[in-house]
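Hi! If you just cloned this repository, the fastest way to understand the data is to look at a raw example. We've pasted two of them here, unedited. The first protein comes first, obviously.
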Amino acid sequence: MKLKSLHGRMIMVIAATIALCWAVALAVLFLYLTHNKNSIWDDKLRTIATRILLTIPAENKLRVMRPPGNGLQLRDEALSESEALAFQVWVDGSRLVVRSPGAPEAPLRPDFTEGVATTVIAGERWRVYSVSDKMGRVYVQVGNLHSVVDAELRQEALTALVLNTLLLLLVGALMWFVVRISLKPVVALGAAMRNRRSFDLTPLTPALLPRELHPLVASFNHALRQLDEAVEGERRFIGDAAHELRTPLSAVQAQAQIALRAPTAAEKDVALAKLLTVAERSTRLSEQLLDLARLNAGANAPQHAAADLGALVMHVVHEFDIHALQQVRKILLDVRPCTIRCDIDEIGILLRNLVDNALRYTPKGGRVRVSCGQEAGTAPPQERRVYLEVADDGPGVPASERAAIFKRFHRVAGTPSRGSGIGLSLVAGIAEVHRATIETGTGLDGRGLGIRVMFPALGFAEAPAPQNL
């Protein structure tokens, strides 16, 4: 199961780490006791046997010593239960002169060889250490039951295991406390964000957060700034759009009143013609506002596919044939086969706004040329960019204002035709979505305005099949 909580993940990692450390410590303790349980007791047995040998009286006194009953009598309480060692003192390997309480009468090590060995006496396993004097006559044998050794080792292992477990649990509790304290600023920041008022997009304060979270907060603040700019832009757009719509609606109302009050049919026709013009302008403005809203709504989820730009240009330009004839303008075509990846609907909006803008600002008898194709060069076709250009021979735009005409509701001062100021901003937005660049210059015969949109190359070994229009 994948944990979604950072706190849960950290606690899970801590718990897993503690469990792993506990298992490793248990394994190390087991290996240590397994390999050293004999050596620990062997050292004890060696030390005791050596000390007993050094305290034995002279040989002439040993000859007359006889073990009375159970040998030399020692108080049982002198040795603790866990240290109830058995020892024997033998002379010439045949006569037992001293033995501890509970020690067997048979030699602990029958071969009387010096060193450590494991023997079995009366069905019980003993760990025995045997040592003799320089003459090899006096032998001291010290032993302990394996069951006693194993019990003590188990007790020591259990004690070490309990202490190790308690220590790891303490470390885990401390780490859990540290995690909880460290995440408190994050929880507090989340609570503060939830308690904010609507559209409160002020940046977050990372001062109380851990340094590792500062880049994440900086990213949040960047997103908040972008959202704030977008909201503010939409607010300005709504205000400007409302202002733009107020003027043609007022004109429609005024022309309708004039038509109603016209005394003659001729004056009524004039008023109705002006009313039609204003209605067409309002319709165009509404369409552009809808296109702009549609572009903003779909900018984050573009549906791009390969399309034949030349076929799209032919299709859109034919829509303007009758309009151009009525306005006594001429549209020239220079279309060459070329393929781009695009959203066909958006590129159609871009092309319609470019053509409409050129026809609007071109005087009667003027020309508008629409061309498309691949830029010249020696690179393979799939590596060359595609251009779409609309040029006219109208009054043109001063070079100082060419960058500003792509802003919303911007109009060049002194132009005879009044536009909405939205068309070219749509062009700029659609070009940005398609990663295209816009170039401006003079139009036909050194006059007017030329706008060229440069689309990126497909970059494929083989261009995809164009979509049918």
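Ok, and the second one:
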Amino acid sequence: MTEQVAVVGSGYMGGGIAQVIALSGRRVALADVSAEQASNSRERIIREAADFERRSLFPVGASERIAERVTAAASIEDAVTDADIVEEAVPEIPSVKHETLRRIAAAAPAAAVIGSNTSTISIAALAEAVHGPERFLGVHFSNPATFIPGVEVIPHEGTDPSAVARVTALLAECGKVGVEIPDVTGFVLNRLQYALFTEAARLVDEGVASPEAIDTIARTTFGFRLPFFGPFAIADIAGLDVYRFCYQSLGEAYPERFAEPASLREHVDRGELGVKSGRGFLATPPEQIAALTEYRDRAYTRMAQLLDELGPAPVRY
């Protein structure tokens, strides 16, 4: 573990990323539009870490470790000059990102991997600003970066596979789950997230249900399952033939919104109905069904206990 990491952009996302990397044992140089801004952000993330310690969200001593390992750089160039890995986390404005990435690429060592925390902008388009684009890729943390484990790792067509491997290894050592996905608009996270929000907003616009009712249904039904199973595992457990029947009903009522996916149709036509047939989108041998059911029941019971312990979220409608 010898990497020196630079985080350029010290706002809420960049600060959280710096905390996570520092707690993995690495030294982090934090940069922003000015030395003063970087220094202020460094002090903020140390205070935040102390508060997280107090609430038992960070281990004891975390704030001291962050204070020891995170430095505020005088400039972007100073932050990246000795960096092995750089993460850009400036505002989601293409011109700002291009200018920042040009400065990073000009000042960082030629072997330094450069990542962008963009959530929507094409990685290939951002790579145009990077000298040595083979070392550039997307590294998209979710908000709050401190606590959300999944990170999208997004190479463009010219990214060297070794850059992907280095970033994925760093994320694993930070306790994160790096998932490599292609450079497509919206990547995976936001295509899923905005598809859900679009339908939720339509239900409100059509007068079907209130935001409160929709949020309640989402978090107490399918959302309740999502920490443990993704959409394909949920579908396999329910039965793909059931899903196909539901798509037929939905497609008749809302043909412009609910067309049966070709992959679902193909699985059902082959008799691959999910867990009950041993194969669907996933493979579930018969000898694993009992263990899967036991895990599901235990997971849902523990989730219900956790939610009861935490109580309702302090949101108002």
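That's it. A detail worth noticing about the second one: The radius of gyration is 23 Å.
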